[in-house]
Specification:
Strand content: 15-25%
Distance between the termini: 42 Å
Number of domains: 2
Radius of gyration: 22 Å
Number of helices: 5
Shape: elongated
Structural class: alpha+beta
Strand order of the largest sheet: 6-5-4-7
Number of strands: 7
């Protein structure tokens, strides 16, 4: 049996004569605790009132947590917060290091052409502005799109009795 992670296993990976995996015939076997709930409400442990979520995200957007913006060939490819949390594009990949300076150093060593704009604490863009710089999309549109999805899920969960 092939182990996918410590909690899930799969049947052995069947291959064709060419050695290519045939994923259609792989059967996943999740552990019982992932498929058998004592109480259906356990599924919605993380359910949150969408209005509270929106208030939180609007307030978070006004904060200034970004300590550095990283560009490669003029394109924003990453941001690092003062606490070391980072956001990167797929082309950059995982950022290693503890804290802001180690993560920036790692990216500079991996991508020599990368430019780094560092901000004094509280002087960088707001989180909403940083979102727009990085994604090219309005923060307010992100909030409303996510809110609509959360609200629909929340109302459905209430209707089914999974949350009070």
């Amino acid at each position: 049996m092939t182990t996918i992670n410590s909690a899930m296993t799969a049947s052995p990976m069947p291959t064709s004569k060419s050695g290519v995996f045939n994923l259609e015939t792989v059967k996943l076997h999740p552990p019982k605790e992932l498929v058998e709930f004592k109480d259906p409400k356990e599924v919605f442990v993380f359910a949150r009132d969408p209005d509270e979520w929106r208030q939180h995200v609007v307030a978070e957007g006004k904060e200034r947590d970004v300590g550095a913006i990283l560009r490669l060939k003029g394109e924003v490819v990453g941001m690092v917060n003062y606490d070391g949390q980072s956001t990167t594009r797929n082309s950059i990949g995982m950022v290693l290091g503890n804290g802001m300076s180690e993560r920036i150093s790692y990216l500079q060593s991996k991508y020599p052409g990368i430019s780094v704009e560092i901000f004094e604490r509280g002087q960088g863009p707001t989180n909403a502005e940083a979102h727009e710089i990085f994604s090219g999309k309005k923060y307010s549109e992100f909030i409303e799109r996510e809110y609509a999805v959360l609200r629909e899920s929340y109302l459905q969960a209430k209707k089914l009795g999974f949350i009070d």
